[in-house]
UniProtKB/TrEMBL annotation:
CDD domains: DNA_polB_like1_exo. It holds the Pfam family DNA_pol_B_exo2. This is 3'-5' exonuclease. The lineage of its organism: Bacteria, Pseudomonadati, Bacteroidota, Cytophagia, Cytophagales. It comes from the Bacteria. The keyword ATP-binding does not apply. Keywords: Exonuclease, Hydrolase, Nuclease. Residues 61-227 form the Predicted 3'-5' exonuclease PolB-like domain. One of its GO terms (molecular function) is exonuclease activity.
Length: 238
């Protein structure tokens, strides 16, 4: 439990900042077109369709709509993973809520853990916080820190074992370690559609939370930590 106590497991879901390419101002349209020219896309895909498909994964053209978080606790010899979904149409309010949660935790020992977090979740959150004029919490502020002072854990990096060209999805690792998948009737590629077309942010938040649960269980497997009995509980959202 000592090893797990200060790890905050997380996952974020992001969408394009505007529903359509036409919804961007002229300056951002030009900059997206320039960005898109360097990206590989299907032949015949319009600028608008390509923007809807890909913009959400870039912090400059997207926004965070949900943050799932999880912490391990020990109760009566049972390891419990407590989950909570944060979500809001107002990105700044969402990020401030997340920042407030981090502020209540021990900053000297707090660690963040996500799958592909170093490449996506951690930098995306940091960039969007700055864009929204929010001061970075210590655990995300990397300025002046040495590599060993950065308290970020990435389960994908743990699986690479130094093989930096190797990408392995969370879903694949869940399968080989017999962890129930979070990919049911929804996947990451559906998030923009569910947000803008279906207008179902709660569904996105629930999907996000499932990824946190899988990541936390994967971490136990990668550290060879036996957790029996084990229980997952969900705190009411927001």
């Amino acid at each position: 439990m000592k090893e797990l106590r200060d790890i905050l497991f997380l996952d974020i879901e992001t969408v394009s900042s505007s529903e359509t390419y036409e919804g961007l101002n002229e300056r951002m349209k030009t900059l997206w077109s320039r960005k898109a020219s360097f990206l590989k896309r299907e032949e015949g895909l319009t600028d608008d369709a390509f923007y809807f498909q890909r913009a959400g994964i870039y912090a400059e053209f997207g926004k965070v709509v949900s943050i799932g978080i999880g912490l391990f606790h020990m109760e009566e010899d049972k390891l419990i993973l407590r989950l909570k979904a944060l979500y809001d149409e107002d990105e700044k309010a969402l990020l401030e809520q997340f920042n407030a949660i981090l502020g209540k935790m021990r900053s000297d020992s707090l660690k963040l853990c996500a799958h592909n977090g170093r490449e996506f979740d951690f930098p995306y959150l940091s960039r969007r916080m700055l864009i929204n004029s929010i001061s970075l919490p210590s655990v995300l502020d990397l300025s002046g820190k040495k590599p060993w002072e950065i308290n970020h854990i990435d389960t994908m990096d743990m699986w690479k074992f130094g093989d930096w060209k190797h990408y392995t999805s969370l879903d694949l690792l869940a399968a080989i370690f017999n962890i129930e998948s979070s990919k049911t009737d929804m996947s990451g590629s559906d998030v923009n559609r569910v947000y803008y077309k279906d207008q179902n942010l709660e569904k996105i938040a629930d999907y996000c939370l499932q990824d946190v649960a899988v990541t936390a269980q994967l971490y136990l497997k990668l550290k060879n930590i036996t957790a029996e009995p084990f229980e997952v509980t969900v705190t009411p959202a927001n």
